[in-house]
């Protein structure tokens, strides 16, 4: 049985994504967890490139690997947290985590095992960024705008919560 280069690339990217996810769950330092998350995001972007979804891969790298990770790091470094107050995970928790991951993998396997896709996409590789833009701004314009409003509300809420924490901290001093 010979393996093509595409198959080997997919297997290696998938393994990096899985290992990054497992490290994210099992590491104890938060900054190390974020680095594992970046590896997961970048490997998923590589899988998108293999699927000829270059725009989605670029968005994955720019938004998730860049912006979201930086925001997480700023949030971690700018908040007060006590590492001693966190309980260490025991063997039972790790065993339950392993059982959960295996159960999820089995459910996904059962879900896609007999999946029958009637047609193959013939125009997927042609102008996929243009197709995304046309679909997004014509068919999904309202959900797109609602998402932007939701993100704006979340930003304002985060600012309000941060100001309340600052006021409480100033009262204590």
From TrEMBL:
It is a multi-pass membrane protein. Its main location: membrane. The keyword Cell membrane applies. The chain crosses the membrane at residues 6-25, 30-49, 55-74, 95-115, 140-162. Pfam families: Oxidored_q3 (PF00499). InterPro entries: NADH_UbQ/plastoQ_OxRdtase_su6, Nuo/plastoQ_OxRdtase_6_NuoJ. GO terms for cellular component: plasma membrane. It catalyses: a quinone + NADH + 5 H(+)(in) = a quinol + NAD(+) + 4 H(+)(out). Coiled coil: none annotated. It comes from the Bacteria. Keywords: Cell membrane, Membrane, NAD, Oxidoreductase, Quinone, Transmembrane, Transmembrane helix, Ubiquinone. Belongs to the complex I subunit 6 family. NDH-1 shuttles electrons from NADH, via FMN and iron-sulfur (Fe-S) centers, to quinones in the respiratory chain. Couples the redox reaction to proton translocation (for every two electrons transferred, four hydrogen ions are translocated across the cytoplasmic membrane), and thus conserves the redox energy in a proton gradient. This is NADH-quinone oxidoreductase subunit J.
């Amino acid at each position: 049985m010979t393996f093509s280069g595409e198959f080997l690339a997919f297997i290696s990217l998938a393994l990096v994504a899985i290992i990054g996810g497992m490290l994210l769950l099992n590491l104890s330092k938060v900054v190390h967890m974020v680095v594992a998350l970046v590896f997961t995001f970048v490997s998923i972007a590589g899988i998108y490139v293999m699927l000829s979804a270059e725009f989605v891969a670029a968005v994955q790298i720019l938004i998730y690997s860049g912006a979201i990770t930086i925001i997480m790091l700023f949030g971690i470094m700018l908040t007060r947290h006590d590492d001693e107050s966190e309980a260490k995970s025991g063997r039972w928790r790790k065993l339950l985590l392993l059982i959960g991951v295996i159960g999820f993998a089995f459910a996904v396997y059962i879900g896609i095992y007999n999946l029958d896709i009637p047609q193959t996409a013939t125009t997927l590789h042609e102008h996929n960024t243009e197709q995304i833009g046309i679909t997004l701004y014509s068919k999904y314009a309202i959900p797109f705008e609602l998402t932007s409003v939701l993100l704006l509300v979340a930003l304002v809420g985060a600012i309000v919560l941060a100001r309340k924490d600052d006021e409480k901290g100033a009262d204590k001093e």
